[in-house]
Every structure is written in C-alpha cells, then in structure tokens.
From TrEMBL:
The keyword Cell membrane applies. It is found in: Cell membrane. It comes from Paenibacillus terricola. This is ABC transporter ATP-binding protein. Keywords: ATP-binding, Cell membrane, Membrane, Nucleotide-binding, Transport. InterPro entries: AAA+_ATPase, ABC_Ni/Peptide_Import, ABC_transporter-like_ATP-bd, ABC_transporter-like_CS, Oligopep_ABC_C, P-loop_NTPase.
Length: 341
C-alpha cells in the first residue's frame, strides 16, 4: 500500500544576509496510514523546517522549497497553489505547535475559536458548529466542556489550552497530523497526559502522525518509525524497535545516551559526543557529522555517505556500513550480505 505521505529529496532553505542556506538537504521520509513517524534530532537540525515545508507554510516563514517532492495521499503538494493548500490544510492535514498560548486568540472564547475553524472548512450553521465545538472539547478530554467553551484562553491552564489547540486541529478530521514539539512547553505530568491523548485520538481517527521531538523518551513511547536528523540531513531511519535495540549511526547512538534538559527546546550536551551542530554557513565536507564522530575515517571527511541498508527496514547514512551494504571492494572476502544486520 502506498504510504499516506512520501517525501523525496526535499531541499529547502533561506536567503540570509550571508547568502542562501539549505536548512534541509535531500530529506526523504514516508509515513504509512495510521502510523506515527517521530522526527528527532538536536535543536537546529531542520525538524521544524521539514514540517513547515510539508504544510507549505515555509514561504510564510521566509523560506522556500528548492527541490524535491511531497506526496500526500497521491497529491503532489509542491505543485499546489497557496489557495489550494488552504483547502488541503483544512481537510487533509493539520499542525500543532509547541506554544499553545500563541496559537489561540486571547480575545475569543475557546468555543468560538473551535466553531470558527469548523465553519472555515465545513458548511455548518453557527449553532451546529458551536455544538460540534463542545463535542470536540469533550473528545480531547476537557471536563465540563459546555462551561469551558465559554471561557477565554487565559482562564485555562497550559495543558488545557493545548487540548483546545488539538481540538482545533482535529476539527477537520485530518488524515495527517503534524505535531512540532507539542508538549515541550508543558510540565512532565501534563506532557504524559497529552501524549496519551494524542495516541488515543490517533487510534480512534486512524490518523497518521508526524511527531517532532528532541526527547528520545517521547519517541520511544509514541513512534512506529523514527527518522533522525542532523544538520539538515536524515542520518538514520527505522522502526522504533530497531533504532532503540541497535542504533546504527554514531549520532543516533549519541542521542540515545543523551538526556533532555529541563530548559525546553535544547538538548543538553550530548554526553558521549563533543561539539555542536554546525552552522548552515559552514557545513563540513563529506559526512556532516564527521567532526564529532568517534568513528570518523578518512573517507568521511570528503564523501557524503548515502543512505545504506543496515538491517531489516533500517537505514543509516554512514560509511561504517558502506562496504557491507554495497558489497564494495574492500569488504574482506565476505559473501555474507547480512553482516551488517
Ligand atoms: N527564518 C529563518 N531564516 C534563516 N534560517 C533559519 C530560519 N528558520 C530556521 N533557520 C535555520 O534552519 C536550521 C533548521 O532550523 P529548525 O528546522 O528550526 O531546527 P529544529 O526544528 O530541528 O530545531 C537552523 O540552522 C536554523 O537556524
Ligand atoms: Mg524546531
């Protein structure tokens, strides 16, 4: 079966004072129907740019898609006009962001805001939309939804506001929900409740989800598939089991051993890996990770490794797996193609 979302060689970037930069470079991903793909990586690795590109919202953030394909349910999104995208965003995909407060309008009641977004995309009478808003509030686990619907965002806690944001996103029954660090701004208990809610709603509605997180604990809990990004490129993909059992890329290994800090978006220093994500203006030649890699070889400094199969349904862009995967000369007289898996 064709995946719901297939991204191929997606390249996107920004014009800056110091010249054009590619924030993501030939990113390829896919998400099956009803599946969750977690996109992980340190701050600055290109996760948000990827999600904004998929939504075709990158233009509004000053960026641009330069190359590649984004297919959603058979539709090529890079070919759509913004007018067509409004329809697609209202019907097939929706996005929630990290900061619930900034996503809500402080001067309207939460009920009115949900009803308004329903009426934007569906032909409903006002009273009907209001009732649907209450039902949606109930669906996202807000107690006494009739009363809550009449309240303003500032009367609700951060966790409640994020539930409202989720209700708005789900109003159009999207096939794909993109959630960019949806719980990062919230405390741990509320975070856990919201993740449970997302998982439950996903099952009920049969949605696919692209969940962006820098927290490997969240990824372990939520993901079917994981894609690891580093400095604008995908360095490893695979099932959650494969990645946690046998992380292949040295960067993934480092991520697994790192602990998210309490200060929100930023990962604490990777315990086992020195250094920082490079600036887009000074990307290293070859593998972008080689300056920080404990296994770097001469080849890594000059040749960018392509994605290579390292196990069942697991791929890594790393020369450690090059010889095995491609059966290149240099693999010591091995006729066992499975050696890496
Ligand atoms: N509006 C912008 N103008 C220029 N560069 C940007 C802009 N937004 C993001 N970037 C750059 O793109 C890269 C990826 O950013 P982002 O996708 O936000 O990372 P992540 O979400 O993984 O933390 C970063 O180097 C960031 O500085
Ligand atoms: Mg981000």
């Amino acid at each position: 079966m064709e995946p719901l979302l297939t991204i191929k060689d997606l390249t996107a970037g920004f014009a800056t004072d110091n010249g054009a930069v590619k924030a993501i470079d030939r990113v390829s991903l896919s998400i099956g129907k009803g599946q969750t793909l977690c996109l992980v990586g340190e701050s600055g690795s290109g996760k948000s740019v990827t999600s904004l590109a998929i939504m075709r919202l990158l233009e509004f953030a000053g960026g641009r898609i330069l190359e590649g394909s984004i297919r959603l349910a058979g539709n090529e999104l890079t070919d759509q006009t913004q007018r067509q995208m409004i329809r697609i965003r209202g019907n097939q995909m929706a996005m929630i962001f990290q900061e619930p407060m900034s996503a809500l309008n402080p001067v309207f009641t939460v009920g009115d805001q949900i009803a308004e977004s329903i009426r934007l995309h569906q032909r409903k009478r006002k009273s009907e939309a209001k009732q649907m808003a209450v039902d949606l509030l109930r669906m996202v686990g807000i107690p006494d939804p009739e009363t809550r619907a009449r309240q303003y965002p500032h009367e609700l806690s951060g966790g409640m506001c994020q539930r409202v944001v989720i209700a708005i996103a789900l109003a159009c029954r999207p096939e794909l929900l993109i959630a960019d660090e949806p719980t990062t701004a919230l405390d741990v208990t509320v975070q856990a409740q919201l993740l449970d809610l997302l998982q439950q709603l996903q099952r009920e509605l049969g949605m696919s989800m692209l969940l962006i997180t820098h927290d490997m604990g969240v990824a372990a809990r939520m993901a079917d598939q994981i894609a690891v990004m580093y400095a604008g490129v995908v360095v490893e993909t695979g099932s959650v089991e494969a990645l946690f059992d046998q992380p292949a890329h040295p960067y993934t290994v480092g991520l697994m051993q790192s602990v998210p800090s309490m200060e929100g978006e930023r990962l604490s220093e990777l315990r086992t890996i020195q250094g920082h994500v490079p600036s887009l203006h000074a990307l290293p030649a070859g593998c972008r990770f080689h300056p920080r890699c404990p296994h770097a070889m001469p080849r890594c400094t000059s040749e960018a490794p392509p994605m290579m199969t390292v196990g069942t349904l697991q791929q890594a862009a790393c020369w450690l797996y090059g010889d095995v995967a491609a059966g290149f000369a240099g693999a010591p007289d091995s006729d066992n193609g499975e050696a890496g898996g």
